[in-house]
Design goal:
This is Disulfide bond formation protein DsbB. This protein is α+β, with helices and mostly antiparallel strands. It has 9 helices and 5 strands. The chain starts with a helix and ends with a helix.
Length: 245
């Protein structure tokens, strides 16, 4: 006996299936378009938030390094002052910190031979400036926490050729990685660009001293020609010998 599919409720109208599939495709395409457009809008908004030196107004007096305004490690009684000029987006700065910083601190800073300073030379892109201003905001709360920020940010460094140190990235990064600061204060300082003028002053001062890339080192006021560790230690040892005379 033959069965009647219509009576058994198993029939499917091909036009109905095609219509359902068409609706699903339209919904999916709309969702993808919204996600893509929203993502682009968010990205554009993030880029708009990035600072630019030309927009930062204020009086700047380029008159040598103001050591009392820079994060440092060591004692002011040390016979040698070493300044590192750095950009948080700089891969070579990241490599130097990872490879040599702890050794340098152990051999020269912890022994009282060197007072070690950090100075911004944020030149790679606009998010360099923002990352630098975030560091300044943390430094104005805690010198110790600034160094924690510097080391951990290098560990999480993005591609040098891409904008990655956006406001949203830095706020999330600091919240998740830097304890012991007033986060609400930091958030306001970052959004209000409270310390961008300090970053700009660092940049102009470093440039006036001949800094044209990162990392660069200055030993007792003398800018070194390269950033090799042996060049740095040789310059320090020379100054230490002079101090002994």
């Amino acid at each position: 006996m033959s069965s009647n599919p219509a009576k058994n409720g198993k029939s499917r109208n091909p036009n109905t299936l095609a219509m359902i599939l068409g609706i699903l495709v339209v919904i999916l395409a709309g969702a993808l378009l919204y996600t893509w457009t929203h993502g682009k809008d968010t990205e554009a908004a993030e880029l708009d938030k990035l600072p630019n030196y030309t927009d930062v107004k204020g009086m700047i007096k380029v008159d040598g390094i103001k050591y009392d305004k820079q994060p440092h490690l060591g004692t002011s009684k040390a016979p040698v002052k070493v300044v590192e000029f750095a950009d948080f987006k700089c891969p070579a700065c990241k490599d130097w910190t990872k490879t040599y910083m702890q050794r340098f601190l152990r051999e020269y800073v912890d022994t009282g031979k060197v007072d070690y300073y950090f100075m911004n030379f944020a030149f790679i892109d606009r998010d360099s400036y923002l990352a630098a201003s975030a560091g300044e905001a943390i430094y104005h709360q805690s010198n110790e926490k600034f160094w924690e920020y510097a080391v951990k940010l290098y560990e999480n460094q993005g591609d040098e050729n891409q904008i990655w140190a956006t406001q949203s990235f830095i706020l999330k990064f600091v919240k998740q990685n830097i304890d012991g600061i007033d986060y609400a204060r930091f958030q306001q300082d970052l959004k209000n660009e409270t310390y961008m003028l300090d970053v700009k002053e660092d940049f102009k001062t470093a440039g006036s001293l001949g800094v044209n890339g990162t990392p660069k080192f200055m030993v007792n006021g003398i800018l070194l020609q390269d950033s090799e560790y042996k060049t740095l230690t040789a310059a320090i040892d020379k100054e230490l010998k002079q101090a002994e005379k």
